[in-house]
Amino acid sequence: MEEKQGVKIGLPIIGGLIAAILGGIVWAAIAAMTEYEVGLIAILIGALTGYAVVLFSNKRIATVHKIIAVLFALVGILLGKYLTVVYFTSELFGDVSVMELVFDSEMISAFAETFQDYFSQPIDLLFIVLAIVSAWRIPGRMARTSLATDASASDHAPRA
């Protein structure tokens, strides 16, 4: 499963980043529509980053790929929380758009100062742990599935 030489991480990083951004946006969009944060989305972000890393690594998985998936799952969760806070802040003030607040330095500072408040509930921690587990396990499972498929395909190959 692990390859000592030639492990490529550039494309898996790009895949993980794309998945994290998409997952964070989906998290915030669902929170905005339902006015409730759905913790299960964190698990989906973990799964999405794991899958993206596998996809962008051509199913050649090393431990570093699992680490990349986990890190980007955490980035996606953080982004989802941040965008949710931005959305509800814009709703609160009414005259400020979401896009204005996303890159506002005061908004970023306020979020950073109150960061731990957004992750203080035990249920938040549970969903974060489950997201980490998803991000870690999916690349390994997909790599094993790929190896099993390759092995079974070679078993059925005609021999000369």
Description:
By secondary structure, the chain is mostly helical. Helix content is 76%, strand content 0%. Helix 2 crosses helix 3 and helix 3 packs across helix 6. It is elongated and about 50 Å long. The mean pLDDT is 87.
Write a concise keyword list for the protein shown above.
160 residues; elongated; 76% helix; 6 helices; mainly alpha
Number of helices: 6
Gap from first CA to last CA: 28 Å
What's the average pLDDT?
87
What's the main sheet like?
none
* Range of strand content: under 5%
- What order do the helices and strands follow? HHHHHH
The helix fraction, in percent, is over 70%
Which descriptor suits the 3D outline? elongated
Question: Which parts are unreliable, with pLDDT below 50 for 5 consecutive residues or more?
Answer: none
List the helices and strands and how they pair.
Layout: H1 10-34, H2 40-56, H3 63-93, H4 98-102, H5 105-113, H6 122-155
Give a quick summary of the entry.
With 160 residues, this protein is mainly α. Helices cover 76% and strands 0% of the residues. It has helices spanning 10-34, 40-56, 63-93, 98-102, 105-113, 122-155.
